[in-house]
Amino acid sequence: MARLPPEARHFDAIVIGSGAAGLTAALHLAERGTVAVLAKGDLADGSTAWAQGGIAAVLDAGDTVEAHVEDTMVAGAGLNHRATVEYVAANASAAIDRLAALGVPFNPGETVSERWHLTREGGHSHRRIVHVDDATGWAVSQALIKAAQAHPNITLVPHMAAVDLITHRHVLHERFPARRCHGVYALDVKKRHVVRFLAPATVLATGGASRVYLYSTNPDGATGDGIAMAWRAGCRVSNMEFNQFHPTCLYHPKVRNFLITEAARGEGGQLKLPDGSRFMDRYDERLELAPRDVVARAIDAEMKRLGLEHVLLDLTHLGADFVTYHFPTIHARLLELDIDCTRVPIPVVPAAHYSCGGVMVDLDGRTDLDGLWAAGEVTQSGLHGANRLASNSLLECLVFGQAVADDINAQRIHAASAPAAAPEVKPWDESRVTDSDEEVVIAHNWDEIRRTMWDYVGIVRTDKRLERAAHRVKNLRKEVQDYYGNFRVTADLIELRNLVTVADLIVRSARRRRESRGLHYSTDYPGLATEAVDTILDPSLTREA
Ligand code: FAD
Ligand code: SIN
User: Fold this and answer.
1) CA 224 to ligand 1 center in whole angstroms
2) What's the pLDDT band for 2 if we cut at 50, 70, 90?
3) Of all protein residues, whose CA lies closest to atom 28 belonging to ligand 1?
4) What's the number of domains the chain is made of?
């Protein structure tokens, strides 16, 4: 057998993504073998480190797993898969215990009977959110990274951007079954060459795609890379039309993606118009604590009705001590921008926040490809349905990160007596590309995709706008594909290529749904269909996959 060139690296498992889902999976996988964890930037660059409000779990004697399940189903407008919701809710408190054991300093309870302080967020019928002040994600991310750095079986590989999954198409000799993933081609962003990472098990944990919209609460890297890679490799994706817009992103000319946590409304914050009047009573009896889709649509409607650039989130009546105690990070960040939220209301707008759709997985996180699992925001597991309930996302990452690892570890034990030989995989081929002399095309197309999605595929949709979006996205896809075929791959090009694929998947899914459900609201189909059905896109049935 020919020797593999040196840039092929072998592991027992590869995890793509170093957020809550990826690192949870890696820590459990490392109990039984070697693991490489790839991240396209620094290890804490994903959404996990930005999470504010906290993690939902039934931890109070007066609360029940059944109530958590029902709240999740109500927020998800009945599209959730009940078995997934029950599985995640039932495993929540154990997931919190594991984080606490890793050293996550959750805020302690205020009475002796309460282990941790629980805050409230929209759509929850009970106080159920454990948190670390208003910067929960940072504490979770740091604890997971520290544990992974200390583990002898884990190799952390930051600045390594996955380009494409390695499947049967890339294997030199056809003795491996079709529809199997063998690892990933990844760009070493600093050395600028493509490396092959090979393993019998690959886990996608690349997060969401909210950066496909012009205004988003997400970090720059949320470009749907995992969804696009899985789609190209032959996996089905579903419910891509359900893009969650968080109601309260800071409105500021210089800072466009700073979130004001939902817990601010949970603890009594009020939404107001510039004249100081409240308006949520005209939209929902749960007022500011209605699920996010309802609150975001209400804000959007008021902004359009009155021609406003933002509405206001008022915390001033809560008292300065309360605000600085519960929201120290937000208070400090706003002060840097000359906004003292203990004295003046905060200007806020809805912004793209979370991708409810994604790569289809079962309860073990298995995808359509053998050898490929997925966990976290990259997936559509059935948990969120048509609208994610606040603070259920980090929970999903923790529960599915573990589920994926358990399934892979079990398969490994099973196969231990006859380990499969690694396939010979084609090296990355750069013989037909050159360095780009037109970087401006990337910046221009990037901007056009995001504007198109914001203007035509936003909070309120119509057939006409979706048709316009489909037309523009089709042209952009062609342009980006030509560019990709001619020029050497770069980190920006990887993201642009994935963004345009994700935009296409969202528009296609939105055009298929002829009803208004959860986050997908169309003025052409304002009613709810009698049956809740997932929108499933299958690359093997799609000409332009
Ligand atoms: P991420 O944490 O986003 O990590 C993705 C990882 O994949 C990163 O390491 C990234 O580098 C890597 N990656 C991506 N593409 C590639 C590639 N091509 N090659 C290599 N690596 C790649 N949820 C809650 O439950 N509670 C909250 O309080 C909460 N607050 C939030 C606040 C904000 C501002 C935001 C943006 C989100 C919030 N969410 C919250 C949502 C939640 O944080 C995310 O859904 C969750 O953290 C996603 O975790 P993940 O592990 O799936 O992905
Ligand atoms: C927030 O803190 O408002 C974000 C919570 C979430 O996205 O679940």
Assistant:
1) 11
2) very low
3) 53
4) 3
Atom of ligand 2 nearest to the CA of 391: 8
* Residue ending a domain, choose from 331, 352, 373: 352
Asked whether residue 315 falls in the same domain as residue 399, the answer is no
**pTM of the predicted model, to two decimals?**
0.95
The CATH number of the domain holding residue 141 is 3.50.50.60
Q: Which of 50, 119, 138, 391 is the best mutation target for the ligand 2 pocket, counting ligand atoms within 8 Å of the beta carbon and taking the most?
A: 391
Contacts of 178 (CB under 8 A, 6+ apart): 168
Output the DSSP codes for 426-463: PPP--TT-B--S-HHHHHHHHHHHHHHHHHHSSSSB-H
- The answer to whether 217 touches 52, Cβ cutoff 8 Å, is no
Q: Is the CB of 40 under 6 A from ligand 1?
A: yes
Q: Does some domain include residue 121?
A: no
CB 257 near ligand 1, within 6 Å: no
Together in a domain, 380 and 459:
no
**Measured distance CA(317)–CA(276) in Å, rounded:** 12
**In this predicted structure, what is the pLDDT of residue 434?**
86
- Residue 361 shares a structural domain with residue 326: no
| Centroid of ligand 2 to alpha carbon of 52 (angstroms) | 6
C-alpha 483 – ligand 2 centre gap (Å): 37
The answer to the question of residue 1 being in a domain is no
Strands 379-380 and 346-355 turn out to be: unpaired
Active site residues: 292
Q: Tens of pLDDT along 250-277?
A: 999 999 889 999 999 999 999 999 999 9
What CATH number is given to the structural domain containing 277? 3.90.700.10
Question: Do 378 and 392 share a domain, yes or no?
Answer: yes
Burial 382-414 (b: 16+ CB within 10 A, else e): bbbbbbbbbbbbbbbbbbbbbbbbebbbebbee
User: Which structural domain, as residue segments, surrounds residue 298?
Assistant: 246-352
45 and 183 fall within a common domain: yes
38-42, 102-106, 160-164, 419-423: which range is least confident on average?
419-423
Residues 6+ apart with CB under 8 A from 373: 25, 201, 202, 203, 204, 361, 364, 365, 366, 367, 404, 407, 408
Q: Nearest ligand, CA of residue 122?
A: 2
Confidence of residue 112 (pLDDT cuts 50, 70, 90): confident
pLDDT tens figures, 194-221: 999 999 999 999 999 999 999 999 999 9
Task: Name which residue sits closest to atom 39 of ligand 1, judged by CA.
Answer: 51
Q: Are residues 266 and 399 in the same domain?
A: no
Same domain? 29 vs 157:
yes
Average of pLDDT values for 287-297?
A: 93
Q: What is the 3-state secondary structure (H, E, C) of 300-314?
A: HHHHHHHCCCCEEEE
Q: How far apart are CA 324 and CA 334, in angstroms?
A: 11
Q: Specify whether 148 is located in the same domain as 221.
A: yes
